[in-house]
Amino acid sequence: MDVIFILIIGSIIGSFLNVCICRIPRNESIAYPPSHCTNCGMRIKWYDLLPVVSFINLRGRCRNCESKISIRYPLIEILTGAIFVSLYIKYGFTIDFFKYVLLSVFLIVISFIDLDTTNVYLKTTLPGIVIGVVFVIIEYLNGNSPTQFIYGAIILWGVLAIIALTTHSMGWGDAEICLMCGIFLGTKLSIVMLILSFVLGGIVGGMLVLFKIKSRKDMIPFGPFIGVAAIITMLFGSNIVNWYISYLIL
Ligand SMILES: [Zn+2]
After folding, report:
1. What are the domain boundaries of the chain?
2. Is the pTM of this model over 0.70?
3. How far is the CA of 42 from the centre of ligand 1 (A)?
4. Mean pLDDT per 10-residue run, the chain (250 residues)?
5. What is the whole-number distance in angstroms between the Cα of residue 128 and the centre of ligand 1?
């Protein structure tokens, strides 16, 4: 029952994230005007805004002008719902659940905007960083040391800043995303995330060049790799750390 409820809430939030991904790069408000068809401008009725269901019901076309609606909309709704459910199965209704749900929301928006535009917007990373700091304060008020989150942020931002300064293969936007993730994840998980993002970026980037989809000179946005790595880390990072420690002891 809980799982279905969270899946529905997640996909509704996912449908709002679609709006953010579409409008933030165009410098439009994410609250006004209400959802409208990007082709004919027709305002979309509430019954055509149901996540996933409406897309299937409309067979992926606008009710008014019949222009095609991107399959990406329902996919992002399903993705958001699936991430929320996975986090719930891992953490239950705990502070960590809400914390990681919020981090995923920011990562989904930032990653897809980066894919579309190769830009990272401060108005997406800064609110994430502020919310991360709020959770650090909550940890502190609960009697936990906040230092690991500060170290996490410094390590991730520092590594990306050095890369941005020396190689220019990554930008300051990537450093901002990493700073945000570091505050949420703390030292150990930040390191897991960093390694995963480089491995993923290396494999996928290498394949894109190998299959000549991208040339060596093309800019491949790194934000989505950070996003995927951070979500894997939220779900399996502690298992990876424990496995590694037991491996060291043996
Ligand atoms: Zn239309």
Report:
1. 1-93, 119-250
2. yes
3. 6
4. 94 96 93 88 91 93 93 96 97 96 98 95 96 96 92 95 87 94 96 96 91 82 96 94 83
5. 33
